[in-house]
Write a structure and sequence with these properties.
heterodimer, A: 112 residues, 3 strands, B: alpha+beta, 8-stranded mixed β-sheet, 6-stranded mixed beta barrel, 27 strands
Amino acid sequence: MGRKAQKNDSLPGSLDMLILRTLSLRDLHGYGIVQFIQQSSDNELLVEEGSLYPALQRLELNGWIGGVWGVTSNNRRARIYKITAAGRKQLAVETRQYAKLTLAIARVMGAE
Amino acid sequence: MLRRLRYWIESARRSEELREEMELHLAEKAAELQADGMTAERARAEARRRFGNVGLKHEESREIWITRFWSELGQDVRYGCRTMTANKAFSALAVLSLALGIGANTAIYSFMESILLRSLPVGDPESLVVLNWHSRPPQEGSKEWVHVIHGVQGILWPGDKGAMVSGMFPYGAFETLREENPVFSTLFGYFNGLNHNLAVRGQATSASAEYVTGEYFRGLAVSPAAGRLIDSEDDRPGAAPVAVISFATSQNRFGGPRNAIGQSILVDNIPFTVIGVAPPEFFGVDPAVAPDLYLPLHTNVLVDGAGAARMYGDGNFYWIEMMSRLRPGVSMAQAQAVLAPRFHQWVGTTAKTDGERAKLPALILNPGAEGLGSLRRQYSKPLYVLLAMVGLILAVTCANIANLLLARAAARRREMAVRLSLGAGRFRVVRQLLTESVMLAALGGAFGVLFAIWGVRSLTLLLSNGQENFTLHAELNWSVLGVTAALSVVCGLLFGLAPAIQSTRPDVMPALRNGRGGGSRRRAQHVLVVAQIAISFLILVAAGLFVRTLNKLHSVQLGYARENILLFSLNARQAGHRDPEIATFYTDLRKRFESIPGVSSATLSHASIISAGHAGATYRGTMKIGAITIAGAGVMVAGPRFLTTMQIPILAGREIDERDQPGSTPVAVISERLARTYFGNENPVGRRITFQDEKRDLEIVGVSANLRYGGLKQESPMTVFAAASQFSPDRVTYALRTAGDPLRYVRSVHEIVREADSRIPVTNVITQAAEIDRTISREVTFAKLCTGFAVLALLIACVGLYGTMSYNVARQIGEIGIRMALGAQRGAVVWMVLRRVLLLAAVGLAISVPAALSASQLVKSFLFDTQPNDPGTLALAGVVLLSTAILAGYAPARRASRIDPLAALRHE
């Protein structure tokens, strides 16, 4: 449905999954999501920061996450995102697909 | 979908929020970099660099929630186009029937808009009010006229609860209300001056005049197209006579507004100077009349003669109409509260008896933004009836298309099931189906507008029916087109919704398996067919009633000749002829008309027979035979050979002829009914009738057969013919009995009149037959339109019935095959299908007959000599409906009976 191709350094489509995964652990604002992904991947995964916001809009439009205006830890107004029930379902689907994919790739790479 | 729509609506706010979010991101990033030891400035630049193009990302994010709505709509529209072109026959049929339905509605609505809703083309119409009064009727309780009104010049109309309402006042009331008025900024008066002889550079025509007070144009806030308008200085006794002419008159008679200023004109031979031209869009305050001339009120004394001067001082003569402009901040109710007591006090002084004091008129204010209500009173009810009619047609059309869509939904059931099982949201599929039906409706609406243009034109022609200066002009303006567009969308949703929801029922599996099923759809189809039949019956009954009314009117015994008679009117008094010369002038003209080759006889009367009741100066006073007052007789002022020309049989004595001169014994001819009523079996010839107000005794010289006098719908009243030479009317209508087409003689008539006096225009040239038809133009219009509507509705309902039955037969091929294999006869199969058709029709009728019985009461006032529950009409409508239903059902039934059992079973 006319979805824009994403510029993502790693696997295509994985940014959505990473955001959903992050938000499934705790509610965060945009910058917090970037920080979390970088820190928990030991700075291996660098999120292209600009691509984050279109991705957030798309996820919200699909009803997978919801944003409300709140206050950050250092008392600034920010839009805090939460994962929804539909989002958790989607995360499960994407996790399964991702597992299948990585397994398949591993098989190919491991084949003699 | 809803969320997306909300996003779209709130896009400005969303966009702002997004910007704020990104700003925060950049700020935090910069703060972090700064903590790592960068300078503030470098940190900000670095944060921005890592983020990428902020504007672009912002746009990208916005696009996600805005463009999807439009791109999906685009997809739906493209898909809709494909489906429409794939089913050309279906689409064409749907668009055509919608175009007819929507077009008819648009045409009728544009008439309603122009009559009922449009404001006067003047400044700030909302602050205008019309002054009216209401009172108990003058003849309440007794047959005598008891009321402060002793004379009127204008119209009284019935109000609520038998009250009498009018907009006419005595001049005294106008003066009383005008002085020191705290609630009106201006109060102005006017009255319809009717037609006058307008001569410009020696060329005379008949022109309609409006007499207006000096405050009229200022009160209406109208500015002139050229020159200046009438003001208070012009409207006083003795002022130089000036005139304002309409824009159209300035173009027709002077070749443009500028040329008219300062020109001298003659109104009934009185010289006036043109001082100004009204703006092109201005038509006075009554949409029913568009005056050619506006004259200062007091000039009516010059034009209409000394009799008019008496009107000003007579507190019991009601003639001037009033409008006013409210002061800013004053409401209509406040104004009424202030002025009603003042009027009450004044009108009390004009009452002479206790009977008159008991029913004094009470002042009421009405909104004046739309002008006077004469057109509304005349046309609003017929228009509501027509609107109801076309509304029903549109309902039939919608039901029909819904039906066709349901049938088509059967064909698309697999398609929908595939889409749903592939994960399309049900809402998404419904939305796409609705887009398709709204597209059909929009196309129908577009063609409907074309149809409406034609409809407005032919309806104007039908309604005006040859009337001179017909002022009702409907047009397709933006508000009408807006309503059409809204109507189209609503129709599209209406007929699209049920099939769309039906075909996306979540029971996907059975549909995928065999592509059949759908008992509930069949039920829905049957309901729609029954509804169509019921509505068609309603329209059929209406058409039947109106056609019957028309037939009754056509078969009315006139009692006089209808064909081969030419009528036209002259007004010599307005061209300067005076008594006693005017009588000879008219007599001489009659002789000259009679000498035209092909004219067998010529006569004259004060008006044509059909319009005699409400036109011209007839004698309205009391008539007596001895001491007995004659009740309910009309007077016809007629010239020589009137009965011969009109082919009215002379039963006794003689008709009025050349012997009856101004100086000789006044004579009368009476109709048979009058003779029978007041003279029994005696011979009335030689007896006398007294015209009390004229203090004249008329000798009865003859008895004529009865005739319908003054309208087809009136019972033949008793008629008294008086000699034109002895009563000397101002305006006369000539009647020529001709060989062949009467209109062939018009040229000779014009020549003769021009020779006699070129200042006299010949007006109202028409054949007697056309004149009579004009009085029943509404009935003719209704009968023609409703017959058309009924045929249309019936046709559409038949298509619906045919479609439904064909679909049913197709579904039952297997069952029919088995029956035939088991030995069912063809006749039995045909009957099986037809039985269902008849059942549907019977259910439709059962619903519709009570509805028709109550609805027809609403049109009772439109009927003549026909009961609203006329059993003949109901039965005929029923028979027509049933036979067309059988006709529509016969083709599918026949097809069913031709089914080859073997093929059918194999098919299963």
